[in-house]
What we know:
Blueprint: H1 2-12, E1 19-24, E2 27-32, H2 36-43, E3 51-52, E4 61-68, E5 73-78, E6 81-86, H3 89-107, E7 112-121, E8 124-129, H4 136-145, E9 149-152, E10 155-158, E11 163-165, E12 171-173, E13 182-184, E14 198-208, E15 217-219, H5 221-229, E16 232-233, H6 239-250, E17 254-260, H7 263-276
Parallel strand pairs: 2-4, 8-14, 14-17
Antiparallel strand pairs: 1-2, 1-3, 4-5, 5-6, 7-8, 7-9, 7-10, 7-16, 10-11, 11-14, 12-13, 15-17
Amino acid sequence: MESVTRSAWQQCGSPADPTLDLVSWGVPFRLAAESPSLLSQMSKAAPFGSSPWRSLPAGARSFTLRTVQPETRFQILGNQELLAEEETLDGALAQLSGCLILHVAEHAPDYVFVHAGVVAWQDRALILPGVSFAGKSTLVAELVRAGATYYSDEFALIDGDGRVHPFPRDLRMRRPGRTEQTPVPIEQLRGHAGTAAVPVSLVVFTEFAEGGRWAPEPLTPGRAALEMLLHATPVQRTPARVMATFSTIMRRATAWRSPRGEAAAAAASLLSALTAGGALA
């Protein structure tokens, strides 16, 4: 992103008025800061896949990071509306990252974003929809260690044909009993990230439970589509498009639900199911 930032400054801003225009998954937006160095930090918070944008359209959202009482507080604004305030730059950049990805997810014209972990195996994708603290990243990491291709531990990006696209940021892992996340590069797991869209073969709703027993039960296609709606963006803006996308997925995918204990047993079962075409045991 740093090289992108330097070239984009030449197109979009000046040292006296640093701005950076980007597009991510079809959504253009602007970053603005008080200095080039702060803008450089902001650029690192842009969603995976962001690239320079030469002509920002009217109505595109602008995100500004500014200091208040220098070096003591940082504010994030969206079109001059206060979105968040943090006492540290790291905290502000984390908030900015969340604001940007939610904005992109809400307005991406060609993709439905589902809060989910994603891996692929033999050109078949597994989607693990779930809320935060459900254990998605832990299970995704175990699947990658077992040889699956990493696509995401945060969002499944699904196009209108029901294919999932790579969104391979570093995994965010939590230590037991802790809420803060630690970035874990995929290389640290001796894994590799996907580079091409693949069809969804398996959708599994699972959550870690102490002493949980892996006992998958099938879901009907209609039930699975409704369950995915709970984790999808932009369901409120374009519900018909989102539901049509999920219906496309469920014409060829199978869906299951189960609690789980340790990730290893679930991972082995899931990879076997992908090999077999979707039947879990």
